[in-house]
Amino acid sequence: MPAAIDVHGLTKSYGDHHAVRGVDLTVEEGEILAFLGPNGAGKTTTIEILEGFRDRTSGEVRVLGEDPETAPLSWRERIGIVLQESEPVPELTAAEAVHMQAGYYTSPRDPAATLELVGLAHSADQRTRKLSGGQKRRLDLALALVGNPSLIFLDEPTTGFDPSARRESWGMIDALRELGSTVLLTTHYMDEAEHLADRIVVIADGLIVAEGTADELAASVDAATRITWAPRPDDPRPPERLGWTSDGSGGALIETNDVLLTLHSLTSWATQMSIDLPKLNVARPSLEDVYLKLTGAPEGGDA
Amino acid sequence: MSALTGLIRQARFDLLIFRRNPAATFFTVVLPLIFLFIFTSIFGNEEIRPGVRAATFYVPGILALSIISATATNLAITMTTRRERGVLKRVRGTPIPAWTFVLSQALAGLVLCLIMTALIVLIGWIVFDVSLNASGIPSLLISVVLGALSFAAIGLALTSIIPSEDAAPAVTNAVFLPLYFVSDVFIVSEDTPGFIRLIGDIFPVKHLSNALQESFDPFADGAPWPWQHWLVIAAWGIVCAAITMRTFRWTPNR
Predict the structure, then answer these.
(1) Among residues A86, A97, A95, A90, which one has the least CA distance to residue A116?
(2) Residue among B13, B89, B96 whose CB faces A86 most closely
(3) Which residues of chain B approach chain A closer than 8 Å at the C-beta?
(4) A96–B13: do the CB atoms touch at under 8 Å?
(5) Does residue B70 fall inside a structural domain?
(6) Is residue B221 part of a domain?
C-alpha cells in the first residue's frame, strides 16, 4: 500500500529566509504521526504545503498519491483539515455549520452523528459565537471530519488550551484512531506527541532532527540520568570520584549514564560514612529533556 | 450533487447568515426605509402633477441605496471578515469549487435585491402613492438584476484592497458614501458643478439610480429602455468580476 504522505527534499524559502530546508517525511496509511517542533521550526509551513495552501520552493510531495499543487478538487474529498486559526461562521449554529460543510462533499458523514462523535451534540443548536474555546475546537474537528476524509491534518490542535481542555482534546483525537484515519498533527508539546502519536518526527529550524517512537527518541539522545540528594550542612563532603556537582541550591547532583554503578558507589560511600542521603532521587531523562536536546542544537545533529 | 444544486444550497445558507447579521440587515433593509420616510417628511410628498407624487423621485434612489448595500457593501465587509477570520481558508480546503462559493454570494445578493425591490415598490405604492407604470417593469427588473450582479462583483473586487476586518466598513463607506451624494441617490440636482457631474458619470452608482428613475418615470413614452446606463453598470461589473478572479484571496493577511 502506498504511503498516505510521501515527501522528499521539501524546501520553502521566502526571499533569504529558509523556513523549510529539506524535509523528508513518510506517513503510512492508518498511522498517527506527530510533527513536533518549537514555534518557527517550519511545522505550519510544511503542513500547509501538504494541505495545498502554499506552494513549495523545491522537493517532491505526494499526498494520497497527488501533488497538492496540481491535485484536482476531488482530492479534497479525502482530506480533512483543522487549521491553526479558523473561526466558524458566527451567525450559524454548530449543527448548521456542520450541515453547510457537509454539502461540500459528495459522500459526507451524517452531520448529527459527526457532532455526536466530537461530543458537541448537546450544543448543536448553539450559535457558534456562543461556544467556548474548547467547544469551538470540537466544532473545528467536526467540520474536518464531516466530509469523511481518510487523511486528517491537525495543526496545533491544543495550543492555548488549559491542561484539562488539552486532556479532553486528546480524548477526541484518540477517537480518530478508532475511525482508522491517517492523522498528521503538529504540536510543540512533547507530551502531546507522546500521548497521541504512533511515531514522532522532530523538526527544528526547517530540518528534521530525529524521528521514531517516544521511546526510540529517548534512547537516541545521549541524555544522562540525574541522581540528586540534599546533603545536610555537617555531612562529610562526597569524594570527587563520584563526579558530583552542586545543583546551585544546596543540593548535590550526579549526571550519569551508568546508573547502577554510580548509585552503588554513592550508597557504599554513604553507608561507610554512616550518613543517609536525604531526598535521594533518581530521574531518568524526561521527554522534555530529550526534546530540548533535540531541538536546541539542530546544527550539531546529523540531519 | 449538480453544480446548480450546490450553488442554490450555498446561497440559502448565505441568506440565512445575512438574516442573522444585524448590521447587514439594518443597512440593507431598515436604513433605506428610514431614509425614504425622512425624505418624504422633510421635502413633503406633494402632488407635483395630477397623479404624480414627489416621492416618485425618492423611491428609485432609495432602491439604488438598498441594492448597493445588499451587494457591494455587504459582500465587501462580510467577505473581508470571513477571510481574516480564516472562514474562507477552511472553505478553500474543501472540494467546493471556488466559483460556486463566490457565485452563491452574488446569487444571495440578487435574491435580497429582488425582495427589497418588491418591498420598496410596495411601500412606495401603499404609503406614498407612488405608482409604477406596467411599461416600466421590464426596465426595472433588468436594472435590479444587472445592478445586483455588477455591484456584487464590485464588492468582491473591493475585498482585495481591504487589508483587515477593521478597515472593511471604513473603506466601503469611504467609497460609496460620497458617491451617493453625487449620484442622484439622496439628492437630484440639476445645477451640479461639472467635475462633480463627471465623477458621478464615471462611477456606476449614478447609472444605477438613473436607470431606476427612468423605470419609474411617470411621463415616459412607452417602455423605458435606459441601455446606456446598463452598459456602464455592466462594464463595471465585468471589469470587477475579472479583478475578483485574479486577485480574490482566501487566506488571512496576517
Answers:
(1) A95
(2) B89
(3) 1, 6, 9-10, 13, 16-17, 20-21, 82, 85-87, 89-97, 251-252, 254
(4) yes
(5) yes
(6) yes
Q: What's the one-letter identity of residue B232? A: V
Q: What CA–CA distance (Å, rounded) separates A123 from B179?
A: 45
Angle at A98 between CA B1 and CA A103, to 5 degrees: 5
Quote the cell numbers at residue A296: 536546541
| A103 with B10: Cβ contact below 8 A | yes
Domain-located, residue B253: no
Give A-chain residues touching B92 at CB under 8 angstroms. Answer: 53
The answer to whether the CB atoms of B87 and A86 lie below 8 A apart is yes
- State how many domains chain B has: 1
Do B233 and B208 form a contact (C-beta atoms < 8 A)?
Answer: yes
8-state DSSP, A52:
T
Residue pLDDT, tens place only, B159-210: 999 999 999 999 999 999 999 999 988 877 777 888 889 999 999 999 999 9
User: In chain A, what is the straight-line distance between the N-terminal and C-terminal CA atoms, in Å?
Assistant: 27
Residue B206: which domain range?
3-247
- Which of A51, A74, A89 shows the shortest C-beta gap to B95? A74
In this prediction the pTM is 0.87
Cα distance between residue B225 and residue A205, in whole Å: 66
State yes or no: ipTM above 0.85.
Answer: yes
Strands A58-63 and A5-14: antiparallel
pLDDT digits (tens, 9 = 90+) for B117-170: 999 999 999 999 998 889 999 999 999 999 999 999 999 999 999 999 999 999
Distance from CA of A105 to the nearest CA of B (A): 6
CB atoms within 10 A of CB B48: 13
pLDDT (tens digit per residue) in B230-246: 999 999 999 999 999 99
Question: Which residue of A lies nearest to B82 if distances are taken between CA atoms?
Answer: A89
Those residues whose C-beta lies under 8 Å from the C-beta of residue A153, and which sit 6 or more positions away, are: A47, A50, A51, A79, A80, A81, A82, A144, A183, A184, A185
Task: Tell me which chain B residue has its CA closest to the CA of residue A143.
Answer: B90
Distance from CA of B99 to the nearest CA of A (A): 12
CA distance B82 to chain A (A): 8
Note whether residue B252 is domain-resident.
Answer: no
Strands of A199-204's sheet in order across:
A79-82, A151-155, A182-187, A32-36, A199-204, A207-212
Please tell me the distance from the alpha carbon of residue A237 to that of residue A75, in angstroms, as a whole number: 69
Distance from CA of A237 to the nearest CA of B (A): 59
Residue in chain A nearest B13 by alpha carbon? A100
